[in-house]
């Protein structure tokens, strides 16, 4: 628990936290009270409409999201932090190439951001004395975008991600703590009448400004969904095998995005690999090459499921047909079904 002995006042401490955060590689740091406010009602309505699909944990952990003190007793303040991750300005256009969401091409951000926040918390303890805290980065039921918005790090874009004048290619992390720091002021929204993200979504998942139907979202379909990808969406996946960045790549604010931290530089050629190459990875190769990468958590079976669909959407080359045939009698019924769909799709196009 914070003992209050520190001679440093809240404003000075906050300035020090910002400075140390910058030294640790955070792009921005802000502070807000640990109260998500009206955003909780929005989340409740979204869940009530079933727009979360099979993400049961969203509903199960609603009260923890709504009440930070239940997650970390004594919490009165949220220190919100952002890290830039844009690896380069290149996007994947070639249909035979695998399109992997930029955030997942390098090291697992959960670990990188949490370890930096832990260093920041240790440094805060040296300045303020012992205090109660817990660090997060997309690792617990925390209303990250809302706290980042309240802390002045940006505004909620119409695609529901945090957006700032430096774009949206940013990871967020938080420190829940019991230090009485003065909160920052939220900034104004700057989306105006722009609806590019709504038009750019390949599956029409952004059903209204600030409202995403996860069940249609390619990130959900390729990452969160455990079973078969609904057939109506398969052709719309194109060559996207893990996540989708379309609502970000079209955003005018991302013209001002800064290149990200080297920690997130692409590994194993994930920014340029061909679908056939990745489809050939054995389960052991998948586990070994993607150690320390967020993709690993979907497992080899979903990886093959996703790539089969992408191959079915790609050019009907002899190599693509042969790659699919090699997996046609895979032990997993899920993989076999998507391979069979892809072979049929290529056959029809041939």
UniProtKB/TrEMBL annotation:
Monomer. Cob(II)alamin binds at residues 65, 138, 162, 172, 219, 244-245. InterPro entries: 4Fe4S_Fe-S-bd, 4Fe4S_Fe_S_CS, QueG, QueG_DUF1730. It catalyses: epoxyqueuosine(34) in tRNA + AH2 = queuosine(34) in tRNA + A + H2O. It is found in: Cytoplasm. Its EC number is 1.17.99.6. Pathway: tRNA modification; tRNA-queuosine biosynthesis. [4Fe-4S] cluster 2 binds at residues 201, 217, 244, 247. Binds 2 [4Fe-4S] clusters per monomer. PROSITE patterns: 4FE4S_FER_1 (PS00198), 4FE4S_FER_2 (PS51379). Its cofactor is [4Fe-4S] cluster; cob(II)alamin. Catalyzes the conversion of epoxyqueuosine (oQ) to queuosine (Q), which is a hypermodified base found in the wobble positions of tRNA(Asp), tRNA(Asn), tRNA(His) and tRNA(Tyr). Belongs to the QueG family. The active site is at residue 138. It comes from Azonexus hydrophilus. GO terms for cellular component: cytoplasm. [4Fe-4S] cluster 1 binds at residues 191, 194, 197, 251. GO terms for molecular function: 4 iron, 4 sulfur cluster binding; cobalamin binding; epoxyqueuosine reductase activity; metal ion binding. This is Epoxyqueuosine reductase. The keyword 4Fe-4S applies. Its main location: cytoplasm. It comes from the Bacteria. Keywords: 4Fe-4S, Cobalamin, Cobalt, Cytoplasm, Iron, Iron-sulfur, Metal-binding, Oxidoreductase, Queuosine biosynthesis, tRNA processing.
């Amino acid at each position: 628990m914070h003992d209050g002995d520190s001679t440093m006042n809240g404003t000075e401490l906050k300035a020090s936290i910002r400075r140390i955060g910058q030294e640790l590689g955070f792009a921005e740091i802000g502070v807000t009270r640990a109260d998500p406010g009206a955003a909780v009602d929005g989340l409740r309505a979204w869940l009530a409409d079933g727009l979360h699909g099979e993400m049961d944990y969203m509903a199960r952990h609603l009260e923890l999201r709504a009440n930070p003190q239940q997650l970390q007793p004594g919490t009165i303040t949220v220190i919100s932090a952002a890290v830039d991750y844009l690896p380069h300005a290149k996007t994947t256009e070639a249909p035979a190439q695998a399109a992997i969401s930029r955030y997942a091409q390098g090291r697992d951000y959960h670990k990188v951001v949490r370890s930096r926040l832990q260093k920041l918390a240790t440094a805060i303890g040296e300045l303020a004395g012992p205090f109660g805290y817990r660090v997060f980065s997309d690792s617990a039921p925390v209303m990250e975008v809302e706290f980042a918005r309240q802390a002045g790090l940006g505004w909620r874009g119409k695609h529901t991600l945090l957006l700032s004048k430096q774009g949206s290619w940013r990871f967020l992390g938080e420190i829940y703590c019991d230090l009485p720091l003065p909160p920052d002021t939220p900034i104004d929204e700057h989306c105006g009448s722009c609806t590019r993200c709504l038009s750019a979504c390949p599956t029409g998942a952004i059903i209204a400004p600030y409202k995403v139907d996860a069940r249609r979202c390619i990130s959900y379909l390729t990452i969160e969904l455990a079973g078969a990808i609904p057939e109506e969406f398969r052709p719309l996946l194109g060559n996207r095998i893990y996540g989708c960045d379309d609502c970000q790549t079209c955003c005018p604010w991302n013209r001002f995005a800064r290149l990200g931290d080297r920690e997130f530089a692409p590994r194993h050629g994930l920014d340029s690999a061909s679908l056939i190459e990745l489809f050939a990875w054995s389960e052991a190769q998948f586990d070994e090459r993607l150690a320390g990468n967020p993709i690993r958590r979907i497992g080899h079976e979903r990886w093959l499921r996703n790539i089969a669909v992408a191959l079915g959407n790609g050019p009907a080359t002899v190599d693509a047909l042969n790659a699919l045939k090699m997996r046609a009698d895979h032990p997993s019924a899920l993989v076999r079904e998507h391979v069979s769909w892809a072979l049929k799709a290529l056959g029809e196009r041939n």
